[in-house]
């Protein structure tokens, strides 16, 4: 599979997010502007890469990109505006950190809202098709994972270091035992069944 650069415009920015389906932690987005001749044989959708490869790619992407930005949107805001709007807000935040003037935005997925009147295109599975989106997916995932590992130290019983806030059996069991924290998304259904009291 060969990832390619998008050729509509120079100064194209690719953007992607990580953490939409999590019960805890932020939704995190990254935006990356790569040089026209950028090539990397390892780079792929972050979900297809091992943690080791993602961690190797992150500094390389940061060094070789023309510019990049990363933004977190935290649970309180997610609960206020919903996860789709929070994901788009995170992507807007990441793009706003790009140096220069992006002329075109390519977005992983099928939903986006205009940003500063810059033309954009949504691309299904864009992170497995275009290098700038794949690079953004790697940065979004690694920055979010780093944040989850940090808050794991505060609440180790949820094992966020391993599950990163996703709804694993272990994570849900910890919610049953300990309840939710300030890092959990209250608008998400934390447990698959609603526990009822027999009165």
Automatic annotation (TrEMBL):
<feature type="domain" description="RNase H type-2">
    <location>
        <begin position="10"/>
        <end position="199"/>
    </location>
</feature>
<dbReference type="GO" id="GO:0043137">
    <property type="term" value="P:DNA replication, removal of RNA primer"/>
</dbReference>
<dbReference type="InterPro" id="IPR022898">
    <property type="entry name" value="RNase_HII"/>
</dbReference>
<dbReference type="InterPro" id="IPR012337">
    <property type="entry name" value="RNaseH-like_sf"/>
</dbReference>
<feature type="binding site">
    <location>
        <position position="16"/>
    </location>
    <ligand>
        <name>a divalent metal cation</name>
    </ligand>
</feature>
<dbReference type="GO" id="GO:0003723">
    <property type="term" value="F:RNA binding"/>
</dbReference>
<keyword id="KW-0378">Hydrolase</keyword>
<keyword id="KW-0255">Endonuclease</keyword>
<comment type="similarity">
    <text>Belongs to the RNase HII family.</text>
</comment>
<dbReference type="InterPro" id="IPR024567">
    <property type="entry name" value="RNase_HII/HIII_dom"/>
</dbReference>
<dbReference type="GO" id="GO:0032299">
    <property type="term" value="C:ribonuclease H2 complex"/>
</dbReference>
<dbReference type="GO" id="GO:0005737">
    <property type="term" value="C:cytoplasm"/>
</dbReference>
<protein>
    <recommendedName>
        <fullName>Ribonuclease HII</fullName>
        <ecNumber>3.1.26.4</ecNumber>
    </recommendedName>
</protein>
<dbReference type="Pfam" id="PF01351">
    <property type="entry name" value="RNase_HII"/>
</dbReference>
<keyword id="KW-0464">Manganese</keyword>
<keyword id="KW-0963">Cytoplasm</keyword>
<dbReference type="GO" id="GO:0004523">
    <property type="term" value="F:RNA-DNA hybrid ribonuclease activity"/>
</dbReference>
<feature type="binding site">
    <location>
        <position position="17"/>
    </location>
    <ligand>
        <name>a divalent metal cation</name>
    </ligand>
</feature>
<dbReference type="GO" id="GO:0006298">
    <property type="term" value="P:mismatch repair"/>
</dbReference>
<keyword id="KW-0540">Nuclease</keyword>
<dbReference type="InterPro" id="IPR001352">
    <property type="entry name" value="RNase_HII/HIII"/>
</dbReference>
<comment type="function">
    <text>Endonuclease that specifically degrades the RNA of RNA-DNA hybrids.</text>
</comment>
<feature type="binding site">
    <location>
        <position position="108"/>
    </location>
    <ligand>
        <name>a divalent metal cation</name>
    </ligand>
</feature>
<dbReference type="GO" id="GO:0030145">
    <property type="term" value="F:manganese ion binding"/>
</dbReference>
<keyword id="KW-0479">Metal-binding</keyword>
<dbReference type="InterPro" id="IPR036397">
    <property type="entry name" value="RNaseH_sf"/>
</dbReference>
């Amino acid at each position: 599979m060969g990832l390619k650069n998008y050729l509509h415009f120079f100064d194209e920015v690719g953007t992607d997010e990580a953490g939409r389906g999590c019960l805890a932690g932020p939704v995190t987005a990254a935006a990356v502007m790569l040089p026209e001749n950028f090539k990397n044989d390892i780079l792929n959708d972050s979900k297809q890469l091992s943690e080791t490869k993602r961690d190797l790619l992150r500094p390389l992407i940061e060094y070789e990109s023309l510019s990049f930005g990363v933004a977190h949107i935290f649970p309180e805001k997610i609960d206020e505006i919903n996860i789709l709007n929070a994901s788009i807000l995170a992507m807007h935040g990441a793009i706003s950190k790009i140096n220069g003037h992006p002329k075109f935005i390519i977005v992983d997925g099928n939903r986006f809202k205009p940003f500063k009147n810059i033309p954009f295109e949504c691309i299904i599975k864009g992170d497995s098709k275009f290098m700038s989106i794949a690079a953004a997916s790697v940065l979004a995932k690694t920055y979010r994972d780093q944040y989850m590992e940090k808050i794991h130290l505060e609440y180790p019983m949820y094992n966020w270091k391993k599950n990163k806030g996703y709804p694993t059996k272990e994570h849900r069991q910890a919610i049953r035992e300990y309840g939710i924290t300030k890092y959990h998304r209250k608008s998400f259904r934390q447990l698959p069944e609603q526990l009822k009291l027999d009165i």
